[in-house]
Amino acid sequence: MRTRLILPSPQCSVGHFVCSSCRPKLVRNKCHLCSAETTFKRCLGMERLMESVTVACSNANYGCAQKLTYYQREEHEDACPSAPCFCPASSCSFAGPIDALLEHSASQHKWPCTTIKYSEDVKFCLEPGLHFLRIKDREIFLLNVALEPFGHAISVVCIQPKATNSKFKCRMSYGSFLTDYYQISVYKIRSSSLSDGLPKGYNLILPKDEIANNGKVTLLTFSIDDPNPKVKVREPICLKPVRGV
Length: 245
Known about the structure:
zinc; four-stranded antiparallel β-sheet; metal-binding; Apoptosis, Tumor Necrosis Factor Receptor Associated Protein 2, Chain A; six-stranded mixed β-sheet; 31% strand; E3_ubiquitin-ligase_SINA; zinc-finger; zinc ion binding
């Protein structure tokens, strides 16, 4: 695996350079070139060279204009706001930052986008199609309702350039007095840039025989838990002694 150069840059007493990540791996402080036991010091010349060389972000084609030193590039790209996400339509090749994806989805595909709040119950029509969900100016989610032979299959994905471990929990529920049927699903939401299309699998399946068919709109209750809830600290209650008891 290739190792990236980072500061500081040590060198042996003879002047042989070694990268910082390889320095702790040397046995008994022996130089990897001259094999002499030595004391490593910073190679200021190499550090100045590393700081003088700048490269463009790999997301330059998507709008990022940052010029970065070699050793800063990886950290920047992990959080670059211009990193692309991809259109979920199988016949569409659009890729761009998340805000551009939302504009594209609305203008080209007419997919709706609803702003919601954490832990707020929202009701959606149980109609096949895609529905974007936005929490303020932060995370973007995609609700997918697919009509399958066995019923309605529903899934949710968090759209972000870098797939990470799940930090969001979703709750979906459906109930009908007509069919005397109720189902609830609580699960962790996957994240994806949608570079490979919509993730496989579903989070909630509603059998077609249990869906009320009375000519009215069927609603699905949906909410996303706050991953960092604010815990209210209650002030202690001071009890004063009652005299004369």
